[in-house]
């Protein structure tokens, strides 16, 4: 089994070769995710673990929230669960985070072959096109009862396949495709259509973040990320770091710069004390005393622009 670092290398290389822009790695701890990657309108917030059972619920919740705030999608890449490897072409889920093997990722982003099977309690399942199934059954003159008998299921189950597009086993789906001579299995939706989050304010106990909220930003604090919050209004989204000026903070600022490029956001660190540093790569460095003189989101945006242009 590959260790985490080697697996991360493989994932980053595969993404880059497939036309994705890939962020620097999140070496700063704690870290809920390891990479961000973008290709066109697809933004992935990626966690990489050799054993996917290592993902805990707290981390999964943060990855999902980050993806939602950034209009992206969470994705876990791994090799095994419990004592066996992840199967190719199968999507697993860990606390709501879609999870695939490196092989499945390669099929999807390189060969454009989406996964068709997902794992759930009790086994492997597929999604079928219920509307097309009903159309084919009626055109073939097959009754609900006859089809149910052929599949060794109840009439109610067949009805649910058609009307509710209820998921089924691989065996039943393949039998249906054999009977009607058409593909009925639908790809598993790894990517969900997302829109920017608005109108949900979180509890904020940090003085700096509270000030940003008071001047009109929506502030979404983070716990396990290289930044302390995602700060946004209608005009911009800012990866926001808060803390003392230190080598660690500068390291975070560089990482935030890389992440902001991939996520198409802006980045700023707000530091205690005085500094002559105006920016670290694309991350604006703002002193708390400068922030205290600001009472409008537009003034904050102007201050960031001034520092980033110097």
Automatic annotation (TrEMBL):
PROSITE patterns, per database record: HTH_CROC1
Keyword DNA-binding: yes
Domain of life of the organism encoding this protein: Archaea
Cross-referenced CDD domains: HTH_XRE
Domain spans labelled HTH cro/C1-type: 133-191
UniProt KW keywords: DNA-binding, Transcription, Transcription regulation
Keyword Transcription: yes
Pfam families attached to this UniProt entry: HTH_3 (PF01381), PDDEXK_19 (PF26553)
NCBIfam families referenced in this protein's UniProt entry, alphabetically: PRK04140.1
The protein's name in its UniProt record: Putative HTH-type transcriptional regulatory protein P0O15_10005
The species this protein was found in: Candidatus Methanocrinis natronophilus
């Amino acid at each position: 089994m590959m260790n985490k670092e080697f697996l991360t290398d493989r994932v980053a290389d595969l993404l880059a070769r497939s036309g994705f822009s890939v962020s620097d790695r999140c070496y700063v701890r704690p870290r809920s995710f390891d990479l961000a990657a973008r290709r066109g309108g697809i933004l992935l917030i990626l966690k990489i673990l050799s054993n996917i059972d290592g993902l805990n619920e707290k981390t999964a919740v943060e990855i999902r929230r980050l993806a939602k705030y950034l209009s992206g999608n969470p994705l876990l890449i791994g090799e095994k669960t419990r004592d066996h490897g992840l199967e190719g072409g199968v999507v697993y889920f860990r606390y709501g985070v879609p999870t695939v093997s490196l092989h499945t990722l390669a099929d999807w982003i390189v060969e454009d072959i989406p996964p068709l099977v997902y794992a759930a309690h009790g086994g492997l399942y597929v999604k079928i096109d219920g509307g097309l199934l009903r159309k084919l059954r009626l055109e073939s003159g097959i009754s609900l009862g006859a089809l149910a008998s052929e599949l060794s299921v109840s009439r109610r189950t067949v009805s649910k396949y058609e009307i509710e597009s209820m998921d089924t086993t691989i065996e039943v789906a393949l039998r249906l495709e054999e009977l009607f001579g058409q593909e009925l299995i639908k790809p598993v939706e790894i990517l969900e259509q997302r829109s920017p989050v608005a109108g949900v304010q979180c509890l904020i106990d940090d003085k700096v973040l509270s000030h940003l909220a008071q001047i009109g930003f929506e502030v979404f604090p983070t716990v396990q990320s290289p930044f302390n919050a995602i700060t946004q209004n209608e005009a911009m989204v800012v990866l926001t770091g808060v803390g003392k000026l230190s080598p660690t903070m500068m390291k975070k600022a560089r990482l935030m710069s890389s992440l902001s490029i991939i996520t198409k956001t802006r980045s700023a660190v707000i530091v205690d004390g005085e500094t002559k540093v105006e920016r670290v790569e694309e991350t604006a460095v703002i002193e708390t005393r400068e922030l205290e003189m600001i009472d409008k989101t537009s003034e904050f945006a102007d201050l960031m622009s001034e520092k980033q242009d110097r």
